[in-house]
Design the sequence.
């Protein structure tokens, strides 16, 4: 911002405007609220001017896309080169049903896959485990063995499409199944690409699908980092996720701070093992939420890029790619309303637009019916079309970081960065991320924010259209997804048949080798791959690790 | 002084979504009730045993995984089996409208979906608590 007006001139004019024109205006017509606040409770001023960012030097703090500090974008030409990947999170019922949904989505223009697993799978249990009762296929697809994985990707070219898998506790096992499936199809390991979520810290903090205690969990994660950069160079071996932290009720600032804090923790853990930062860091990826406050979300993504670049540099990263904060975005599930579900399409549109203006690398848009059930075919098609309209019709793809330089956006980006560093300090005081988890720090912070938000809605301090204002007396009903009731039975039969027909001596041998390796310090990925290749089930493989590592139990606080 | 209403807020099954359960637990406490929160990953048996040991008047189940038709019903049946029908059983979460009548028939007195003001739950409990 090259200016002919001096700072002093602007300051004086601003003061004059505030005291005369503005004062007069609000005297005649008082403002609607005493204070305007965003979702992080940051007070928003009536106007932002060059004064709000005058301490910031363009080249140091903002810079150019593809260059440090990457505030504007990680890629020099962003969407002018390649659009973001349209990646709808999907999975329900059996592998066959979900496979059909993937083909449907790809036929309608989706450009990447994203697997949702059911709860038993997320906890490393086979479908016929007693604790799986009632959960089969309910909020994702059930994958108990390589056989299911083969069915899940039937007819999908694994060397051409990338796949993201939301799996954490058993991530190494599910990833091994994906790799084994590709290998069995004759696809070389270096030809497949995708992401495993593999972010256990946010499980303890928010999402709660953990299995093992922190220490062995961190070991498994570093194992995947190492195995990944050596063997599967196109794979993102972690997706450090704020999404679930936000869904659990955090503010945008907390999401930003806790997520990046987790990221730094993983980097330190890998370095402690002796891995070189520039070997693994290029394959670290992130995952953020897109909630309702439009500008706050955009500022959050921008701040995340700059903070990450700074922190990685400080940790010794030299490669450009190691400094990149590449991220996936999903619109906020918790912002969807069961009331007047069609209007969720509008919410999702605004949230998706924020993600795109924030420079996301891939995007999931929620379906309008997700406060009621898993999405129907029609609902998911509209959600995908929403992205396509933003991409093809809105023109926001034409220039990189179109909001860069906005006084408000730059001020807010700086503010969120400042608040993030305050959280970094607090966590440091508690002894780091894992001790802070064990003390319940993040959990308490999030519960506090969630409660405050709910109270604001109940007291109508925050308006949610259709919920606490503009309600309808009679709610419209929309058709929801019903799953194949025979799916569970088929899956259990398949599993039992597999246990009888496979080479069980080989299975036991591989499981035994895994057990021994888990007791030592070797990288477990090759051992897990052997188990999976011999058709050991998810439950069997995970049980070996449960035996050796034990299970994590959280202290329930509210 | 009247006896405080005792409530067990419980998370059955593998579902980890505890935002709603925690908010409701806290709101009920703020409304003067005595609240016990089970934490995550409870079987129906564990929930009913806790309800018995804590001598609660109300059990509130929270589930967002879609397994409510199995797990809510399990708890209802077990309460009946233990002759604890004087305990008010309610639930909430991501529950399709068409499942609500079936759940009510199974013994879940009321189901609170997304967007319910917590005050509504407080009022409901005060009005319907059986003992």
Sequence:
């Amino acid at each position: 911002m090259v200016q002919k007006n001096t700072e002093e001139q602007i300051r004086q004019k601003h003061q004059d405007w505030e005291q005369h024109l503005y004062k007069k205006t609000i005297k005649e017509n008082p403002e609607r609220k005493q204070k305007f606040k965003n979702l992080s409770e940051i007070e928003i001023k009536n106007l932002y001017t060059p004064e709000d960012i005058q301490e910031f030097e363009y080249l140091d703090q903002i810079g150019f896309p593809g260059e440090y500090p990457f505030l504007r974008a990680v890629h020099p030409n962003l969407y002018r080169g390649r659009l973001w990947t349209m990646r709808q999170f999907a999975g329900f019922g059996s592998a066959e049903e979900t496979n059909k949904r993937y083909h449907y989505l790809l036929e309608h223009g989706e450009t990447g896959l994203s697997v949702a697993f059911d709860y038993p799978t997320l906890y490393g249990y086979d479908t016929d485990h007693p604790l799986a009762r009632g959960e089969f296929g309910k909020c994702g697809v059930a994958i108990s063995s390589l056989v299911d994985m083969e069915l899940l990707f039937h007819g999908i070219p694994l060397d051409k499409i990338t796949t993201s898998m939301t799996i954490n506790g058993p991530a190494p096992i599910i990833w091994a199944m994906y790799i084994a499936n590709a290998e069995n199809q004759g696809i070389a390991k270096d030809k497949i690409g995708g992401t495993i979520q593999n972010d256990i810290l946010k499980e303890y903090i928010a999402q709660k699908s953990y299995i093992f205690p922190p220490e062995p969990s961190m070991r498994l994660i570093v194992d995947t980092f190492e195995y990944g950069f050596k063997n599967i160079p196109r794979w993102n071996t972690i997706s450090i996720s704020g999404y679930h932290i936000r869904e659990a009720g955090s503010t945008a600032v907390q999401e930003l701070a806790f997520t990046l804090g987790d990221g730094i923790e993983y980097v330190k853990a890998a370095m402690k093992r002796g891995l070189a930062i520039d070997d693994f860091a290029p394959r670290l990826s992130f995952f953020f939420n897109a909630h309702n406050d439009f500008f706050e979300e955009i500022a959050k993504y921008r701040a995340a890029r700059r903070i990450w670049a700074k922190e990685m540099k400080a940790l010794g990263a030299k490669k450009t790619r190691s400094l990149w904060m590449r991220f996936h975005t999903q619109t906020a599930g918790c912002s969807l309303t069961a009331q007047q579900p069609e209007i969720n399409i509008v919410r999702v549109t605004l949230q998706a637009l924020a993600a795109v203006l924030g420079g996301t690398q891939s995007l999931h848009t929620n379906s309008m019916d997700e406060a009621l059930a898993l999405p129907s075919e029609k609902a998911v098609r509209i959600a995908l079309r929403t992205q396509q309209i933003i991409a093809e019709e809105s023109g926001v793809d034409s220039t990189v970081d179109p909001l860069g330089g906005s006084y408000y956006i730059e001020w807010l980006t700086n503010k969120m960065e400042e608040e993030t560093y305050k959280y970094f300090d607090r966590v440091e005081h508690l002894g780091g991320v894992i001790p802070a988890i064990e003390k319940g720090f993040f959990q308490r912070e999030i519960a506090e924010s969630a409660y405050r938000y709910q109270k604001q809605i109940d007291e109508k301090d925050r308006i949610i259209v259709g919920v606490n204002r503009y309600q309808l007396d009679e709610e419209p009903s929309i058709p929801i997804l019903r799953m194949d009731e025979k799916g569970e039975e088929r899956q259990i039969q398949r599993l039992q048949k597999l246990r009888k027909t496979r080479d069980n001596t080989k299975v036991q041998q591989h499981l035994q080798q895994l057990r021994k390796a888990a007791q030592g310090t070797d990288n477990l990925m090759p051992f897990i791959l052997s188990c999976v290749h011999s058709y050991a089930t998810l439950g069997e493989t995970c049980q070996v690790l449960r035996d050796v590592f034990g299970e994590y139990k959280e202290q329930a606080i509210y | 002084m009247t006896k405080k209403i005792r409530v067990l807020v419980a998370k059955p099954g593998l579902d980890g979504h505890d935002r709603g359960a925690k908010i409701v637990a806290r709101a009920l406490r703020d409304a003067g009730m005595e609240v016990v929160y089970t934490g995550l990953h409870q079987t129906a048996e564990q929930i009913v045993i806790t309800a018995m040991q804590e001598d609660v008047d109300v059990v509130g189940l929270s589930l967002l995984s879609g397994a409510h038709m199995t797990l809510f019903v399990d708890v209802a049946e077990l309460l009946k089996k233990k002759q604890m029908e004087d305990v008010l059983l309610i639930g909430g979460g991501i529950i399709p409208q068409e499942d609500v009548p079936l759940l009510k028939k199974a013994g879940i007195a009321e189901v609170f979906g997304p967007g319910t003001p917590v005050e509504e739950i407080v009022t409901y409990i005060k009005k319907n608590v059986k003992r």
